[in-house]
Every structure is written in structure tokens, then in C-alpha cells.
Amino acid sequence: MSTVLWANRLDESTVVSDEADKPALHRHLSRLDRVAEKAGLAPLSAWCDTTDLRFNLQDLELPEGMTSTHEWMAAAGVWVEADEAVRGLTALIGVIEGQRPRFGVLRDEREAVLAELRESLAFARAASVDGARFNFSVVM
User: Fold this and answer.
1) What is the C-alpha separation between 12 and 2, in angstroms, rounded?
2) Which residues are registered as beta bridge partners of 121?
3) Per the structure, how many domains does the chain have?
4) 24 and 105 in contact (C-beta within 8 Å)?
């Protein structure tokens, strides 16, 4: 079982996930954070919520009255304004395209990282139009 990131939006109290696995973003999250911080951008990990991962790894019980980890994440998860995510993702994509940092030791996965960032940016833009919030959930 692999661990990936999913892009999510929070509309009022409802979580909508793209449910599209982003393994390259998860695999290279530390490298992405270093690239972002060097460029003066917020680290991508600051937008990552671990509610689902903790629930699965720690065999936690959902809080009373909740039926899914999405409800738990909506109530107590890590969220950023979608407008902020759009700005950050756009800037990070620009930095990666311009500086062309390497992602990976054996082979460069920069194009996979960029594809997943662009997919996430499209999702964040849609959330931004509706005034929603955005995050990445760590999913196993």
C-alpha cells in the first residue's frame, strides 16, 4: 500500500476530494519544501493534513457523531484559503520550470512533479472561484 497526496477543498463544512493519487508530490515533499523555502514561498507540507493517515495507522476511533475522516478533517484539519494555494502553487510551478531542480536520485521525476502540481493548481482554482479552502491530505 503506497502513501500519496490528494487535493481537497472545503466548502463550508463539506470536504470534496479530487481522489487523484499524487505519489510524486508525496515522494518529493521534502525537496519541494526546500525549493519553495529557497524561493521565499510557503512550504507545501504546511498545507498537508494527516487526519486520514493517522486514522489508518493509529487505529483511531472517529469522534462521536462523525461517520468519516472527511468530517473529521473538515472540523479539525489543516486548511489554507484556496486563493493562497493558487498563488503558492503558481509560484512554485514557475520556480521549478525556471530553475529546473532535480527530483529523485536514480531518475529525475521533475515532469511528474510538475504534472501533479498543475493538476492540483486546477483543483485549487476551482475551489478559489467558490471561496473554498484547500489542502492536501496524506492518504494511505
Assistant:
1) 30
2) none
3) 1
4) no
Q: Within 13 Å and on the Cβ side, how many CA atoms surround 56? A: 13
pLDDT in tens, 25-57: 999 999 999 999 999 999 999 999 999 999 888
Q: Cα separations (Å) of 111 from 52, 116, 121? A: 27, 9, 15
pTM exceeds 0.85, yes or no: yes
- H or E segment to which residue 89 belongs: helix 82-99
Residue 45 is which amino acid? S
How large is the angle between the packed helices 82-99 and 29-38, nearest 10 degrees? 90
Give 95's contacts (C-beta < 8 A, 6+ positions apart).
35, 36, 39, 41
DSSP calls for 29-62? HHHHHHHHHHTTPPPGGGGEE-HHHHHHHTTPPP
Contact 36, 115 (CB under 8 A): no
Provide the residue range defining the domain that includes 124. 4-139
